[in-house]
Amino acid sequence: MSQPAIQDQECPDCGAQLDLSQAEAVGDLVDCPNCGAAFELVALAPFTLAPFVDEEK
Known about the structure:
- By secondary structure, this protein is mainly β.
- The protein has strands at 29-31, 38-44, 47-51.
- It is built from no helices and 3 strands.
- Strand 2 (38-44) and strand 3 form a beta hairpin.
C-alpha cells in the first residue's frame, strides 16, 4: 500500500482535508480548518504529521 500524496492528507481527528501548502520543513505546523486541531510536520519522507503539543502552557 502506498503512502497518500502530500496534498491528500486528512485530519486524524475529524477527517477534514488539511491545507499543507505552508508545510515545507520539519517543525512546521498545520491547523485543521474544521476542528482546529494542530499538527506538526515531523518527517518529509515519508510525509508524517504528529499531534502538536504546546509545551509552553
